[in-house]
Design a protein that fits this description.
- The chain has three domains: 256 residues, 3-Layer(aba) Sandwich (Rossmann fold); 160 residues, Ribosomal Protein L25, Chain P, CATH 2.40.240.10; 117 residues, Ribosomal Protein L25, Chain P.
- Helices cover 26% and strands 23% of the residues.
- It contains 13 helices and 27 strands.
- The strands form seven sheets. The protein has a seven-stranded mixed sheet with strand order 12-25-26-27-23-24-13. A seven-stranded mixed sheet has the order 21-18-19-20-14-17-22, with no helix packed on it.
- The longest helix has 17 residues.
- The chain is elongated and about 100 Å long.
- The chain starts with 9 loop residues before the first helix and ends with a helix.
- The protein binds one RNA strand of 75 nucleotides through helix 5, strand 6, helix 7, strand 11 and helix 12.
Amino acid sequence: MEDRKESLNFIEQIVAEDLATGKHASIMTRFPPEPNGYLHIGHTKAICINFGMTEKFGGVTNLRFDDTNPETESTEYVEAIKKDIQWLGFEWGEREYYASDYFGQLYDFAVDLIKKGLAYVDDSTSEEMAEGKGNINQPGTNSPYRERSMEENLDLFERMKNGEFENGSRVLRAKIDMSHPNLLMRDPVIYRVKKAHHHRTGDAWNIYPMYDFAHGQSDSIENITHSLCSLEFENHRPLYNWFIEQLGIYPSRQIEFSRMNVTYMITSKRRLLRLVNEGVVSGWDDPRMPTVSGLRRKGYSPEAIRTFCDKAGVSKREQTVDVGLLEECLRQHLNKTTDRIMAVLNPLKVIITNYPEDKVEDMSIVNNPEEENPTYRTIPFSRELYIEQDDFKEVKPNRKYRRLAPGEIVRLKSGYIIKCDDYVKDEETGEIKELHCTYFENSRSGSDESGLKPKGTLGWVSAKHAVKAEARLYDRLFTDPNPLGHEEDFMHYVNENSLEVLPEIMVEPSVMERSVGDRLQFMRIGYFCIDPDSTSEKLIFNRAVTLKDTWAKIQRKS
RNA sequence: AGCUUAGUCGUCCAAAGGCAAGGAUACUGGAAUUUGACUCCAGUGAUACAGGUUCGAGUCCUGUCUAAGCUUCCA
């Protein structure tokens, strides 16, 4: 059975090795979001890697909020983030932590560093510090405050804590090396005065640790074995290790992977905010947004997103994944799991002239043919139906065409075979008003004795039974696969047609039994999800993704 | 320019010095089909460049080129 070794990504190889050599008896990872924004598709990769690692190798994953900058963080984001991770299907149980829980320990760590002569209070302004930092070509210069005595540093730092100094007046810096080739090692700031209200610690603190002095130590405090983060923190690793070594605390190991970009999407918080503020989208959960909440509202399933992250893979190469892969993962999951529903987006009336006026037949139709034990429901068939406008042409365009045209026959899915005899056209507008067809009485689906072999099968809805609904057809938010890769501002590439609203589509009556968030397939059209804007009178369907359309492709080519 | 990292089919990921560089997706062609979906079959397509080590290099070494990150009291 296990004849070929499944290939592991480079992080899994490290973990497997650490487990095999006994370096660790079990592993612990963490997902450390800052609660200052909503999770997006890029975050899902980090979530899948961190939680996925312990699902695969055993061990636990902590959820830890990196809340060290009170000015931008809030509990609202905490709740939204928790909801999104849960929805993705990951659990952290009781293991919900906050960097702010460690403020006391972090303060003690800082004091310890001062006592070891490895940190000092600097009174310089931020401009002076920036100057002293040097740049990539030039070494920095030592701060005039660098050689303060330990006692003075201790006193000053405590007074910083006590709120005796104003915001920005003093910082605590690690004393490392002002000429280090890695700029982050040039005496980085580790504490700043910030008299701000914190969403959890309230007004208890007047100083807050910087990321570099909070993240690694938090990992260490929790005994995280493998701290998996994105490539942008590569430069921070020497510092991460330096603090752990100097403090003599648990040596968590940081490993970096490349973050995920997706074509036609952007994930920068600042830029997404512009889309929201400038009204390009309706909000953070607009179905066109790359946020988890947006994807969810659009109709994405957690399974599809997780499969996508899995297929995108893990490496250290810059990655831009084709959004087509995301869409394909959705199709694959929804194909297996959703019921097929009859719906007509752009209705064209069909009158079956030889079908009795008041007759209604219940036609049996399979809910989802992909199920192991398929179930069935009935849909009403009557004299007047709707079909898709696209499914009729006045003249058959070519030999490959398999839909309705004068004189042609088609199968109505799970109904009868019909023949188009005539059509009514508005000569002014050229619009086709209705079709006149005849049906073959002995061609009923399931008991077809007509011997006819129509080439095409169409979807349809009985006119008098149809439920009117709204459809929102979403397309990519940008017209360019890399909206940030140009001279012009990314707003220049916003797709003006990313949303098409169809106020009155026709759907089979069974949809009234569905509820908000339900996903289903409109036969031959695409996968849809019921939007929360729906009311009891009017359902609203968001298009999550279209079905593949080979015919459209053929037409495009000619 | 300094440091760090990375260059493999269009895209994403494999191949720990050893078969014909493999898979996914995309693309092309075909089969089947009461969804032009799904499924099935076949095909196109890559080791950045130049040297070197080796019986043998995508993999090791040297150099070149290219790309990304770092030069905020954000994370």
